[in-house]
Amino acid sequence: MATRVSPGASSPVAVSLAELIAIGDRLPPSRLEAGRRLAAKQGGYLSRFRGRGMEFAEVRAYLPGDDARNIDWRVTARRGKVHTKLFHEERERPVLVALDYRRPMFFATRGRFKAVRATQLAALFAWQALAHGDRIGGFLFSEERNLELRPQLGKKAVLQLLRQMVADPAWERPRHQPFEPKQRLAVTLQRLRRVARPGSLIRLLSDFSQWDERVELQLAQLNRHCELELVHCFDPLEADLPPAGSYRLSDGLRDLSIVTTDRAARRAYQQHFAQRRQLLEDFCRRQHARFMVLPSDLDPIENLFSGGAGG
Length: 311
Prior knowledge:
alpha/beta, 6-stranded mixed sheet, two-stranded antiparallel ribbon, 10 helices, elongated, disordered N terminus
């Protein structure tokens, strides 16, 4: 199983609470928006602005120019005159960080586990939400469980999310178990759609294994009432085979040899990943959602502080 590291230490296969807290300590005011610039640099698509969440205020008689979608039909029927609902804007936007801890995320050939990189970026998102005065919540999902943290204000909410990410049972799995999900990704996203409040910013970090039409349907429905951002986590080996040669791989139980000298096979491998990436990008373009890539050999925090997020 993955070994926990001591506070402040850095590991390619685990995260620590001290490390995630330090991300917030290092975040200068000038970089509060850098996460969005990083997304733009990595191929982001700006979403249409839906505004912050809306809370019900009162009912009054309908006036010309009012939105017909807000008509209160029960009050209208009771009083015999058309009435409409009034809303006021919530002062803090709910930000929900949805983080994939399924087994394929615990993989890397270079850099760190995809799950480690995603957790680091999720921590950055949480600290940014705090700096903006937004409410921060979480949705952590894996083969073993789904954990929902209702968006709340303040540093306490950020620390609660960080603790839950570090303590998630996925980090303590026995090694070499096959990926046998109890439910498809589409079912998990259906649950996410049910818990996300209208007007929320949903930042979904995943490798999007099991992407299919049902996943697209759930995300499209989620995107109707929320602002959606997809962060695609991947290892460089998933995008391209290593240099031409012969390699021996092992999962700890079995050995496997692969030969990467066939040019046609290399092109087919690259095209398969490119087509899968294109599906994600096309979906985000159609939905006017934001898209960001997070390779496992790129430290999103170091890239941010070094100026790599600019543009």
